[in-house]
Structures are given as C-alpha cells and as structure tokens.
Amino acid sequence: MIDELTVCRGGCHCGAVRFEIDLPARVQAFHCNCSICRACGFVHVFVARKQFRLLAGADELTEYRFHTRTAKHLFCRICGIKSFYVPRSHPDGFSINLNCLELSERIEVQMGEFDGRHWSRSIAALQSQTDERHPR
Q1: Residue 108, pLDDT score
Q2: pLDDT over 90, % of the chain
Q3: Do 100 and 84 touch, CB atoms closer than 8 A?
Q4: End-to-end CA distance of the chain
Q5: Which of 70, 78, 115, 116 fits 122 for a cystine, CB–CB 3.0-4.6 Å?
Q6: What was the pLDDT predicted at 126?
Q7: Residues 135, 47 contacting (CB under 8 angstroms)
Q8: How many whole angstroms separate alpha carbon 75 and alpha carbon 115?
Q9: Residue whose C-alpha is closest to residue 104's, from 22, 49, 2
C-alpha cells in the first residue's frame, strides 16, 4: 500500500523563498551534530526531487559549498535562512528544514539523530533509513 501524501508548504523567514513538498503521514526527521547543522539549527526531512516544488524565490537563493563542495547549501539572500538544500547524502533530492515547514496536523514527525561529525561512518545507516521511505 502506498502512503497517501499531504502537501505542506514552507519557506524562509522573510517569505521571499516559498516551496511545497509532498509528505507521507509519518515523517522521519533528523537532528545532526555536524558543524553547519549545529550552527544554523537545521533539522532534516529528506524528500525526493519529485516531492519538491519551488514556488517563489529562485532568484533570491544564494549558494554556499564547503569541504567536499558536493552539498549545495541554499540560503535566502534577504533573511539568510536555509529552508532547504541539496545534501551530499541525497544528491538527487532535497533536505528540508523541519523548522521552516507549515506542517499539516495529519503529519506525525518521528525524530532521529545523525552523527554528522563522523559523516563517513554514519552515512550508510542514514541512507538506508531514508531511501526505503522516499525512493528517488
């Protein structure tokens, strides 16, 4: 049985960047202890590219890359909020900041932890957890 998906909207603080995503009734979110997630308070919800639609603000996004330069960290150039980005772990999808979502009451969020400080050691477990829920 395929989960029925609910459309949820989100965006940055100033409202210039707006998007919508399709989420199942149960969503797995992850706290990460890597340097950038700790600094900006990002809580990951991974979605496949086909589950994400940018509604406004493409011209307001600015990109930041570091370390392997694989992840595309996207920030609103007006308010500085990173509401979503293309992660190194899921380059064919997006990581959405749970804190930037207007969640439907029908969505149940289950919190998990990801040891981003030890990325290479931890990534296989994260990918197996998220790939089974959100095939690309």
Answers
A1: 95
A2: 62
A3: yes
A4: 18
A5: 115
A6: 72
A7: no
A8: 23
A9: 22
Instruction: Please answer whether residues 98 and 111 qualify as being in contact, where contact means their C-beta atoms are separated by less than 8 angstroms.
Output: no
Above 50 in pLDDT, residue 70? yes
Does position 132 have pLDDT exceeding 70, yes or no? no
| Confidence (pLDDT) at 133 | 47
For residues 54 and 136, is the Cβ–Cβ distance under 8 A? no
Whole-structure pTM value: 0.83
Q: Which tokens is 12 given? A: 């940055």
Say which amino acid occupies 117: R
pLDDT higher at 128 or 30: 30
Neighbouring C-alpha atoms within 13 Å toward the C-beta of 1:
4
Backbone angles phi, psi at 90, to 5 degrees: -140, 70
- E strands of the chain, at which residues? 6-11, 18-23, 26-32, 43-48, 52-56, 61-64, 72-76, 84-86, 93-97, 101-102, 108-114
Q: What angle do CA 90, 92, 95 make, to 5 degrees?
A: 50
| pLDDT tier for residue 136 given thresholds of 50, 70 and 90 | very low
Structure tokens at 73: 């960290």
Contact yes or no for 34/113 (Cβ under 8 A): no
